[in-house]
Design goal:
The structure is a single chain. Helices cover 31% and strands 15% of the residues. By secondary structure, it is an alpha/beta fold. It has a single domain, classed as 3-Layer(aba) Sandwich (Alkaline Phosphatase, subunit A), CATH 3.40.720. The strands form six sheets. Strands 3, 6, 7, 8, 9, 10, 13, 14 and 17 form a nine-stranded mixed β-sheet that branches. It has a two-stranded antiparallel sheet with strand order 1-2. A hairpin with a 6-residue loop joins β15 and β16. α8 runs antiparallel to α9 and α11 packs parallel to α12. The protein is globular and about 75 Å long. The two termini are 30 Å apart.
């Protein structure tokens, strides 16, 4: 097994001077240096190259656009049609269906758990016959391009651990995010833009989204996601301060690089190289970021496709348009967050607003990528951290209900880059409470995403504090049934 060595945070002379362990110390030093397996050695002087000299096998995808619906969209009101719920509307959830599974504290003490059929109308669409509710008329036109996975499940039952699990492979904070793993493994395909970019919809933040969700964890800091914001300064602290010219900034970076090189020779800490690489990237981004964010030259047909909201910076539609522009420039991982799906009460009104936000924009993004010839090697993923319960949280009325968190089964969809189009994979039971066919765990989805990028998820590993870590921990199976 090949391994790639990095310099530890002290040179060898200093190490042996402090720890006179003889051969035992040498063995320990070698272990501390071993950080990645399944990868051929690469030159450290190019920090954006990635640890893999080449993918483990030919990739189907060169980039990912991950549309994360933070809050947990209700699969039962969007994609998972369950007429049995409507037939038994208001009846208590049978114990034989629940099987004693845990509930959150928000509904665990309800006297009853009345089943709530969706008030929205469902119909089959396209040649695939996929079921979609009338909340998503644009997505309904797209079903023959999509692969619906209706059997997703997770262990996490509350938002923060559940989102963290999807993004980092652990419910506990501190692990590298998926985008950071891809940056570490494959590097950047554009030297003027980050490998990993984050866009968050404005005016939809009903729950916090922490920067650690796109953090680098224990990986070198150059692999963390860079958040692009709407407004005058898309990336904070990127522009030169008043009175500092581009020439002055260039000279400062040159002198700083000389000092950093001396410090690296003395300490051998790879984080030193990471810092100077980030400074250099920021310098190049002063030109590249304004260019990618400037949509003024987009033709009228673009805004007809995405809708007028795409002209409003920070909206989900505008971010989808930016995602296409970044895909054109080979940004490796483009993460969009659209919060606001946490509908414990007043679900019908809340989900109407959310669906309107994303429906046309998602259709436009997939369609635009296809028209540009990018869908074949761009993987698009849509979904949240868990689903919603089939019973009502709080009072159930004819036209109003809420739904609690439900990790047992929910729906995501994928498109492009070697994913089977026009397919529904997996199924839930008649009441939409448990997975009935082909369960797909969070680790399975992560393994499948890495597979499409040419990465064996069991071989992209980083050694930290004496343990080998990977995105999928010690689990995960590629879902071959969704692959072409």
């Amino acid at each position: 097994m090949n391994c790639t060595h990095i310099n530890f945070a002290m040179n060898r002379r200093e190490f042996f001077g402090r720890f006179a362990f003889g051969l035992g110390g040498a063995a320990l030093f070698g272990l501390l240096n071993r950080d990645a397996f399944g990868a051929a050695p690469v030159k450290l002087e190019n920090p954006f190259k990635g640890i893999l000299s080449a993918p483990h096998f030919p990739p189907k995808a060169n980039r990912i656009i991950y549309l994360f619906m933070a809050g947990g969209p209700s699969q039962l009101d969007l994609f998972d049609y369950k007429p049995a719920l409507s037939e038994h509307n208001g009846e208590d959830l049978p114990a034989s269906v629940r099987m004693g599974q845990r509930l959150t504290g928000m509904t665990g003490y309800q006297a009853t758990l009345p089943m709530a059929g969706s008030i929205f109308k469902f119909a089959q669409h396209g040649q695939s016959g996929a079921w979609v509710s009338d909340l998503m008329p644009w997505t309904a036109k797209l079903v023959d391009e999509l692969c619906f996975i209706k059997s997703m499940h997770t262990e996490a039952i509350n938002h923060d651990p559940a989102i963290t699990f999807f993004q980092t492979g652990s419910q506990l904070a501190g692990r590298p995010s998926m985008g950071a793993w891809l940056s570490y493994g494959l590097g950047s395909a554009n030297e003027n833009l980050p490998a990993f970019v984050v866009l968050i919809s404005k005016d939809r933040i009903d729950q916090p989204l922490y920067a650690r969700l796109w953090g680098n964890g224990f990986l070198p800091s150059l692999h963390q996601g860079v958040q692009f914001r709407s407004g005058k300064d898309p990336v904070l602290f990127l522009q030169n301060p008043d009175g500092v010219s581009a020439g002055s900034r260039r000279k400062m970076l040159d002198r700083l690089a000389e000092l950093e090189a001396l410090q690296f020779q003395d300490l051998g800490d790879p984080e030193i190289n990471a810092r100077i690489a980030q400074y250099e990237m920021a310098y190049r981004m002063q030109t590249s970021v304004p260019e990618v964010m400037d949509i003024s030259q987009e033709p009228d047909s673009t805004f007809a496709l995405y809708g007028d909201e795409a002209k409003n910076p920070g909206t989900f539609a505008a971010n989808c348009l930016l995602a296409r522009r970044m895909a054109e420039r080979n940004v490796r991982f483009i993460q969009l967050y659209h919060p606001g799906w946490d509908h414990h009460g007043n679900l019908p009104n809340g989900i109407r607003r959310q669906a309107k936000d994303v429906d046309q924009a998602c259709y436009a993004l997939v369609t635009d990528l296809k028209q540009c010839g990018l869908l074949d090697d761009t993987l698009v993923v849509w979904g949240g951290e868990f689903g919603r319960t089939n019973y009502s949280q709080g009072k159930l009325t004819k036209d109003d209900y809420g739904r609690d968190h439900h990790p047992r089964c929910f729906t995501v969809w994928m498109a492009g880059a070697g994913i089977k189009p026009g397919v529904t994979y997996g199924a839930t039971d008649d009441y939409g409470y448990n997975v009935a066919e082909n369960p797909v765990h969070v680790f399975d989805l992560q393994a499948t995403i890495l597979q499409q990028l040419g990465i064996d998820h069991t071989r992209l590993i980083f050694r930290f504090q004496g343990r080998d870590y990977r995105l999928t921990d010690v689990a995960g199976e590629v879902v071959k049934g969704v692959l072409v």
